[in-house]
Amino acid sequence: MRFLSETTSNGVSERLFALGDVPGVLWSPAGATGGRPLVLMGHGGGWHKQAPGLVARAGRLAVQYGFAVAAIDAPGHGERPKSPQDERFPAEIGELLATGEPVSPQVARHTAALAERAVPEWRAVLDALQELDGIGADGPVGYWGLSLASVIGIPLVAAESRIGAAVFGLAGHESLAGAAAAVTVPVAFLLQWDDELVPREAGLALFDTFGSREKTLHANPGGHLELPAHEEEGAERFVLRHLLGAG
Amino acid sequence: MRFLSETTSNGVSERLFALGDVPGVLWSPAGATGGRPLVLMGHGGGWHKQAPGLVARAGRLAVQYGFAVAAIDAPGHGERPKSPQDERFPAEIGELLATGEPVSPQVARHTAALAERAVPEWRAVLDALQELDGIGADGPVGYWGLSLASVIGIPLVAAESRIGAAVFGLAGHESLAGAAAAVTVPVAFLLQWDDELVPREAGLALFDTFGSREKTLHANPGGHLELPAHEEEGAERFVLRHLLGAG
Lengths: 247, 247
What we know:
2 copies of one chain form a homodimer. Chain A is of the alpha/beta class. Chain A has a single domain (2-244), classed as 3-Layer(aba) Sandwich (Rossmann fold). Helix content of chain A is 40%, strand content 23%. Chain A is built from 7 helices and 9 strands. Chain A has helices spanning 52-65, 84-99, 104-129, 148-159, 177-181, 200-209, 229-244, and strands at residues 2-9, 12-19, 22-29, 38-41, 68-72, 141-144, 163-169, 187-192, 215-220. Chain A has a 9-stranded mixed beta sheet, with helices on both faces. In chain A, α3 (104-129) packs across α4. The interface between A and B is medium-sized, with 22 and 22 residues.
């Protein structure tokens, strides 16, 4: 893991890094040493590791709770090269939406291919992060990622015993069922009731499939990009409850 | 409204009252005068106005946020006389559950009959409460009631323009659809994913039916009586957000 830059503002250190050809960012309390909880955050399709929502959430978790938070660019996103299929994908989805055809199969196919590459990348990043002095290998680890970041995160959390709780959502397709059934840690699952990219029944079926004894479904009216702010806050409380045992 | 007794502990005044033949209880901060937010709380089937969950919640809302909270015994519950059908109902449900037959139609029929009586009772109680010095008619009013108290609360909130937000849940039957469609205030709706009394699809359909622009569905694994503590806390935040505008 090579650190490329560090900026500090409002008590939060933001370090850009690269692990092989995977660019990432690590937020932590400025000057932090010693072990601490770590949250891995994925971004949605078309976004990148420093999407505004991720930066704001990482800052809150670092300053208010002393967490470390890491994000990486998903394949074909942010600073990473796009394949011809990556380039075509947004227009393909736009055309399907415009003509009222189902987008879910195409979304599932494209994002599954990205997830196949992203899961081993995340695991290597987690290995490297846990070797850092300011994180260590003894603290709890969570995952937080919606939409594309759930398609990546569900098989990641299924495979990765170090991750102890996960926030997923804005996703649902039968191709995720096998991995979801293998997830056994507490899951908060956020659905939008009128998601134009995720059929309601497919989202509910995915929630049903998680193997976790403790899982919570939160659904609200609105489209894929209209998650209400109170659910962001609720997901933060979920992470705190499960990583810190805080009420 | 006749007040029958007052006890004060830990800063909370608990006053028993009767309005006609409806027994009730009013919690408020000890010594409170002047207007304040009011929450009407219903109890579940087989319970009563001073069920432990209601007492604890009312105490928190009174002490921490200065709310007034009122509960009444539903028809056939608590101090109120039971009809022969009220007496038979628990055993009927027990037999249906034991033989694996659907209980939902029988629950819907029995609770709808109770609701028909309870809705005008609640409206008269609200009239009387708003005439009290320590509550007044200018503060926001919420409703909180699950299970039987949703069967009562949904038509109440549909009919009663003074109620500005509601916590419902553990209910779902097509007979509630008309009233639910007429509810337009913010609703938090709590479902149990494995509710032995409420078919999952019926609960989801009821959530879908609410006419509210703002509504939030929270579902968790477990049976009718296994609502997790974090959803109680989440519902409290919902009430505060909508009655106080607090984040």
